[in-house]
Amino acid sequence: MTALYAASGPVSSDVTREDEQFAELLPVTRRALLHRVAVGQVKGRTPSLVGAVMRDGRMVWSAGRGEVSGEVPGIQTQYRIGSVTKTFVAVLVLRLRDEGLLDLNDPLGKYLDTPEGGEATLAQLLAHTSGLAAEARGPWWERTDGALRPELADIFGEQPQLHPAGRLHHYSNPGYALLGALVEQVRGESWYEVLRREVLVPLGMDRTTLVPEAPYAEGWAVHPWADVLLPEPAVDTGRMAPAGQLWSTAEDLCRFAEFLLHGDDRVLAAETIAQMRVPETGPQEPGWTSGYGLGLQLQRKEGHFLFGHTGTMPGFVAGLWVSAEEGTAGVALANLTSSFETAAVAADLVRTVAEHEPRIPEPWRPLELADPALLELTGPWYWGSTPFALRLCADGGLELSPLGPGGRGARFRAEADGTWTGLDGYYLGETLRAVRSADGAPGHLDIGTFVFTREPYAPDGAVPGGVDTGGWR
């Protein structure tokens, strides 16, 4: 028995006729998506699975397979989303940062009296580089009542700090329990009540809750060698709840995906959302394949950069992946314990849409005003003998691109003081300055002390160390 749910949300009033033409997915795309969900439910041996696709701000497709209480699950059926909860907690912490109530570079101990983890910065806790242990002490915390760990001290085992803070990436559930406690300390109320008021209500996520509300799926374990099921407990994890307690629906997570794509000034600005997607661990080079930002998992898969989060709890698997390039997100929710097949569905939904219906780019438009002083900066520049091209973009930023093999390219955002700040790659966060000669003409570019000149090793150029007086030979 199969159900296919087409999105019914309104199309924005400012879209063009061309936008309306592509608002709904093509039949061949819908069938491919349904096939992926159906295969995921069968191969994953999943009691039920719901998949959904968000594109350009609204849910455009969904499908349910299997049964929940004798019915095919739909976009309003709740599933436990596990560690996807962590992204919601990260949003709360960043709201506090944007309000000036804390600094991500400060140690947690500045704000919270904690027996462990106080030396780690808030950024390290968000990015899982705090060095804290992966799990809470005592019996499997996801299957045992949170009353076993009533205080923060009760979540730490005999060896709570496994690595020096900031040294490497080590996923830590207790780390997010601490971040939830931080929110409670600063706001003076439970982290979930803060989440409800400040995030869920503004975003219209009425079906995202701390405890399940009907209709919801029951969690199951599937026998490894037989097609039989065993009920999994769905306990209140107490202090550990910020690491994986929430329940949600495909429809609500599509709304959250749109927020993670563009932000919402009632919750977090787009600029802050963009900061969450920057890899906090590992090199910042364009060739990286996986990483972790500020509460977001990151991956490059088959040419697509995806951000979001996966989650598991006993009896449940969840996935939410977003592609900014395609303006598309995939959601998958299932009720079984740990399934790699099911976990891959959300990312595959994004890939399927991209393959069948690649996004139609926005029309190219020129700059409204062409500043002659900025136009003078464009064209070829040389770092040593390596050629680059500098382009002025329609948003007033600059784009530096190598003209041959090798070389580091980057985009730069214009600042009010006449400089530009690097947005990616090796120059992320570095400052680009245009240094002018006495007559006002561009003399050279300075990017974090790297000098770019108009000619390769020009004798009269500002080349650090000077140029051999004998010239080229």
From TrEMBL:
Segments forming domain Beta-lactamase-related: 43-353
Signal sequence annotation: none
Ranges where the DUF7586 domain occurs: 371-454
InterPro entries, alphabetized: AmpC-like, Beta-lactam-related, Beta-lactam/transpept-like, DUF7586
Protein's name according to its UniProt entry: CubicO group peptidase (Beta-lactamase class C family)
Organism for this UniProt entry: Streptomyces olivoverticillatus
